[in-house]
Amino acid sequence: MLRRSAWLLLGVLAGCSPGKPMAVREGDIVFHTSRSSQSAAIQRATRSPYSHMGLVLYRGEKPYVFEAIATVRYTPLDAWIKRGAGGHVVVKRLKDSATLTPAAVERLRQAARQMEGRPYDAAFGWQDDRIYCSELVWKVYERALGIRLGELQELRELDLTAPEVRNKLRERYGNDVPLHEPVIAPGAMFASPLLETVASQ
Prior knowledge:
This protein has one domain (about 5-15, about 20-200): Alpha-Beta Complex (endopeptidase fold (from Nostoc punctiforme)). It has helices at about 5-10, 40-45, 75-85, 100-115, 135-145, 165-175, 185-190, and strands at about 30, 50-60, 60-70, 70-75, 90-95, 155, 180-185, 195-200. By secondary structure, the chain is an alpha+beta fold. The protein contains 7 helices and 8 strands.
């Protein structure tokens, strides 16, 4: 069995070419394009190819993705990658990676425990009773380490003009769209200047 330190250094992602491992560490953030029915609307509204994301944390000796789907849960990293369109994934990490000391990672874990099991928020509200993917990762980092990965926007600041987006808004809100609701999009976090890309496939 691989030691935890070996996983932290090598962390091979499923589907990588032989001999070309991609390293993942605890605290890394992974992005992919979801195959869900709402993915196209999220991509259009946020002008980003990435519609889903999660936080890498280890359980035992193996990497998992802490994510919000039907509920907030841990998913094995290889299964998470395979679930995305084309098996494509981008791994981002804090540029100041020295921030992620063992004590800091433990604070991420503690913040994650507060969210585990909560239902997915299809209405993209900012309350904690339900939660969506980018909101989950943003709040875990902000509450554990005081780090804001991307700037909050109001819903009205997204591109709400595409038919896919308008249809989802009608489906979720009817005629009462909360245009001033704070939101954090996967694309906004992907573009955070505090992060750098460390792996992609």
